[in-house]
TrEMBL record:
GO function term, MF aspect, one: dioxygenase activity
PROSITE patterns membership: VOC
Entry's transmembrane regions: none
Name of the protein in its database record: Dioxygenase
Domain VOC: 7-132, 153-270
Source organism, top-level taxon: Bacteria
Amino acid sequence: MPEDIKGLHHVTSMAADAQQNNDFFTKTLGLRRVKKTVNFDAPDVYHLYYGDEAGSPGTVMTYFPFPHIRRGRPGTGEVSETLFAVPRGSLGFWTERLARQGVAGLEAHERFGERRLRFRGPDGDGFALVEVDGDPRTPWAGGPVPAAEGVHGFRGVSLRLRDAGATAELLRFMGYEEVERQGATTRFAIEGNGADVIDVETLAVAEPARQGAGSVHHVAFAVEDRAAQLRVRKALMDTGYNVTPVIDRDYFWAIYFRTPGGVLFEIATNEPGFDRDEDRAHLGQALKLPGQHAHLRFRLEQMLPEIRD
């Protein structure tokens, strides 16, 4: 199984307002909205995807904007911070840009030898821009941020756990290696698609997180295709994990399981991709509905809030 995991695929979080969420990721961070669809289980709620030009695995941040959802409470058992890779030397640009736009929580610091700029999303989401040298991924050049300073994709995520032992064992089983420790945080890395690191922070006395707006719902790991996904599923189940059946998410196939630390993991395929129902030049423009909800189009178009680009 270890050779099947290719780094992160996407990170899915929750928000309170679709327009605010769209504006933050497309206008402030300069990502491309690559898909506008709905939550499979709650079709009256959008599912918005942001990433590079094609929505490549390892670049895609996705959101369920639930109107009137309460703010999440940070704690243990969650993804505490999502890390985006930016070009070396670009943090000055980003500090000025985010400060000018009133982004909260700006804090420059260094971890594992990497310069970072921490900040908060509209719902208190934990983010950091991390300078990475030589990242071959191409930032989206069609937005307000020049490609020379743009977001390449994910660097990785940070998990905050009460006890990291079993989750560390799981990550090793998935092909990650422990590469460094700094204080209460251990870094795990894999040679993958660029979204290659998982930082695990242990806080034994912290309260459990309460999910809500600003919380990460799940973190997805990439595999090349369905055959690889089935190998991973079997390996996890043979080890004792309770893994869902394969679920068709239109743009990838997915399986889910809860980790020992409480974080929900997904394994998602790189196929078929976000251009399966839209050409690349027009990704994210039209409202796309899963087949089981196609009959609801008229009602959903009336009730979903308009998103102004």
